[in-house]
Amino acid sequence: MSNEKYVSSDLFPGKCFTNLNRFRDTGYFCDVELNVEEQKFAAHRNILAASSEYFATMFNTNMKEKYTGVVDLKEVSANTIEQVLDFVYTGKVKMCWDSVVPVLKAASLFQMEDLLECIEKYTLLIVTASNSLDLKEISQHFMLKSLEQAAIECIHKHFDEVCMSEKFLDLSENEVRCFYESDELNVEVEDVLFTALVNWTNHNLQARQESFLGLFSLIRLQFVTKVFLTNIIRKEKLVRDNMNCRDLVEDVLHFQIKPDTLEKQKPRSNNVYKKWFLLTPNSTVKTLQLKEDSSCDDVQTPLHVSYQSAIVLHENKVVFCGGLSLTHNKATTSIVSFDGEVWKGEGNKKMWSLITVNHTLPNKLLINIKARVHLEQPRESQKQLDVSTFSFGLPSTEGAKVSGLGSTAQSIAKAKVKVVEPVLASVDCINVMTNKWTEVPPLQQKRKQFAASAVQHTIYVFGGNSANGKHLNSAEFLDTSTDNPTWTFLPNAPFPLPNASSCFIAHYDEIFVLGGDCQKLCCFSTFSHTWKDTVSDVTTKIEDEENLNSKIDVAGSKIFGLKM
Q1: Beta partners for residue 452, in sequence order
Q2: Which of 115, 211, 310, 524 is 20 to 30 Å from 25 by CA-CA measure?
Q3: How far apart, in whole angstroms, are the C-alpha atoms of residue 154 and residue 483?
Q4: Regarding predicted confidence, which is higher, 203 or 222?
Q5: Range ranked top by mean pLDDT from 60-64, 200-204, 345-349
Q6: How far is CA 439 from CA 243, 380, 422, 430, in A?
Q7: Is 98 buried (19+), middle (13-18) or exposed (0-12) by CB count in 10 A?
Q8: Rounded mean pLDDT, 402-412
Q9: What DSSP character marks residue 231?
Q10: What angle do CA 363, 189, 449 make, to 5 degrees?
Q11: Rounded to whole angstroms, what are the CA distances from 299 to 274, 285, 435?
């Protein structure tokens, strides 16, 4: 008949299983008994057979359980079989970390693909640096591909934490090799890889000493901090006892003096900026394509972002701290984050607490910070800084800079925030662990409106304006890892950098500097201490010109990059 039609009830399956589960609890119509650890669990064999190939085969062949209706299970615990039955009758299971492996073993034993998939979904939600190595091992044992990929990505992202765990010491040589060969490791500097390798080797020295050279050669020594290379690696007994290791160290020391004489090692891709942006003086954000035909496109900013904001690069997000509200023409303490795709309001915080929070996350560089900084509480250093309130944008400190640095080097245990006063050469250092200020040697040249960046333990300052308004192309650096550090002049930039607004690390050794009042973008190598006439596109070959497209008005903009 033409009007025939199937109709269905969405509620019926759920009601049916609710009743079946009630029957299980009360023993109604149960025809099989599962004996586990001296406990008995009543169930329905047709329900078990429909959910599990294991039980379907058992009840459909001439096995004794088909006739006795009693199944003795020694491979699982009572708690685990209860979780399995809950899933069979409800489609849900209550999980915690301790039950992951037992339930996975049961699901594998009973050939329950749906339960395996359900547990994999749960584990994907709980992957952290502390359990990523365990979950990687679990995923490979039970062939859970999505979990394996998520665990490896987490290990790469948090390798500086993972490699210092007890679990790392139990890895095989091949497992360590796979990690050390990877371009995806997210480490600020290679120092942590050496420390982890020494710990791993000494954990079973007799069996692993012969493997040390092969794994040591996988550390990209050109990206180890100089002080760590000299004071730690060079003096390590495992290195001193191996001539080939000593040769590798000497090659790197030679490379640091004459970088053009040796082939440059490839940086890990997680430490290469892949997406670049401009924050313009009009408080708008634009994407920046550094290619032959350079271009800028507007980025929608649903939340307030100010050109006067302090810019902090943190966990591959850009955080805009404070600034000047254009609508109310007053300072703001708002904090907004941007990951290249999503804008998120992080609330309102005071600058001092923000600095402290940033330090609790070690091995992170805080760069490209250009802000007017004010302290809330009266401090001994307040006279030097000439500030009194906790906000941004007030004229009294126009041009002040803050650049923070965190270091993985053992000899640099505390992060520091450097404050350089405008149109002055004096520098003060605050240790955010103790909140104590100390004096730092002054800049060689008084300047304001300059660009500053921190690379590992070294601070670089570029261009700006002198007290009499002269446009500067001079640059200088301070190596904070040395005893009694002093500012040292660098080669001059190829052109003046007045009002140099910002700079950022393109990858390990390159800093981009935008010339403030001009459209020119230049690149400085921290390895060779030389300026480049072209800008390297870190995702392709070198093909960029030093000038941005003349049609793009980017003068005075701040540059920041994301690794994506």
Answers
A1: 461
A2: 115
A3: 37
A4: 203
A5: 200-204
A6: 43, 12, 16, 9
A7: exposed
A8: 30
A9: I
A10: 70
A11: 16, 5, 37
Model confidence pLDDT, tens digit, residues 280-335: 767 777 776 655 444 455 666 666 677 667 666 666 677 777 666 655 555 566 77
Which fold, 162-261? 1.25.40
Cα angle value 298/299/304 (rounded, 5°): 120
Give every CB contact of residue 336 below 8 A, 6+ residues apart in sequence: 303, 304, 305, 309, 319, 320, 343, 344, 345, 346
Residue 246, pLDDT above cutoff 80: yes
Interior angle at CA 482, CA 163 and CA 217, nearest 5 = 35
| Bridge-based pairing state of the strands 70-72 and 32-36 | parallel
On the question of pLDDT at 546 being above 50, the answer is: no
List CB contacts of 11: < 8 A, sequence separation 6 or more: none
pLDDT of residue 460: 85
DSSP reduced 3-state for 432:
coil
For residue 332, which of 351, 352, 311, 355 has the smallest C-alpha distance? 351
CA 199 to chain centroid: 23
What value does the mean pLDDT take over residues 408-437?
Answer: 48
For the domain bounded by 272-562, which CATH number is listed?
2.120.10.80
Q: Residue 547 above 70 pLDDT?
A: no
| Residue 558, helix vs strand vs coil | strand
Residue 407 has pLDDT above 60, yes or no: no
What's the token pair of residue 142? Answer: 């039970």
Architecture of domain 12-126: 2-Layer Sandwich (3.30)
Run of H or E including 26: helix 12-26
Domain ranges of the chain: 12-126, 162-261, 272-562
pLDDT of residue 528: 77
- Secondary structure class of 156 (helix, strand, coil): helix
Q: 217 is written with which tokens?
A: 């050669």
Residue 89 structure tokens: 């009758």
**pLDDT score at 153:** 94
Q: What's the confidence (pLDDT) of residue 111?
A: 96
Cα distances from 360 to residues 193, 354, 429, in angstroms, run 21, 10, 18
Task: Answer for the pair 351, 333: CB distance below 8 angstroms, yes or no.
Answer: yes
Residue 340 has pLDDT above 70, yes or no: yes
Distance CA 337, CA 317 (A): 6
Six token digits for residue 254: 């030679």
Please state the three-class secondary structure of 336-399 as a single string: EEECCCCEEEEEECCHHHHHHHHHCCCCCCECCCECCCCCCCCCCCHHHHCCCCCCCCCHHHCC
Q: What percent of the chain has pLDDT over 70?
A: 66
